[in-house]
Amino acid sequence: MVRFALFLTGCDLSFWTGSKSRAIVPPAVTATAISPVVTPITMPTPAPVPVSFNGSTRFSVDSSVVDVTDELALLLEKSQQHSIIDITVIGHTDDAGSAVYSQDLSEKRARAVADYFVRQGIDEQRLIVKGKGEGSPVSGNETEDGRSKNRRVGVLLRGMSDSEINR
């Protein structure tokens, strides 16, 4: 009669059949560190909300001097209250000059508004400045009134809803 017994002690495996005891040594085991896989959760970025100055923040011909209007001051106030938002400032011109000149002037207009925001305490890292030149008119350039409407700066706010802006 053969008896069979199995003993597990530590890392050794032994068995006994009644006559002799034999140890079976398992192959060497190498420890491998397991790195956890971390997948960052990204929240959807809110779409930018365009803000209109309703024509009161316009520029004179060939100028990038900003007149601080009530609307611009209100926009600054909203931007200070909601520090999570990014602010994109986009300058525009009429078509009176060359395309290269208009592009440069539109960038200067956007930079002038962005500089105003920075002087009032908005972190420059939150600002994106773009110029669109004469490429995005809101009115025809055939009349002085139409051209004056096109000499403007638009602002996009990311991180605020329409209702937060209009409160």
From TrEMBL:
Per UniProt, residues of the OmpA-like domain are 46-161
Which sequence ranges form a coiled-coil region, renumbered to this chain? none
Q: Which InterPro entries match?
A: Bact_OuterMem_StrucFunc, OMP_bac, OmpA-like, OMPA-like_CS, OmpA-like_sf
GO CC, one annotated term: cell outer membrane
Q: Which SUPFAM superfamilies match?
A: OmpA-like (SSF103088)
Q: Tell me which domain of life the UniProt entry assigns to the organism this sequence originates from.
A: Bacteria
Q: Pfam families this protein is in?
A: OmpA
Q: Principal place where this protein is found?
A: membrane
Task: Output this protein's name.
Answer: OmpA family protein
Which organism was this protein described from? Shewanella atlantica
* Region of interest (Disordered), ranges: 130-167
Q: Which UniProt keywords apply?
A: Cell outer membrane, Membrane
Where in or outside the cell? Cell outer membrane
Q: Does the keyword Membrane apply?
A: yes
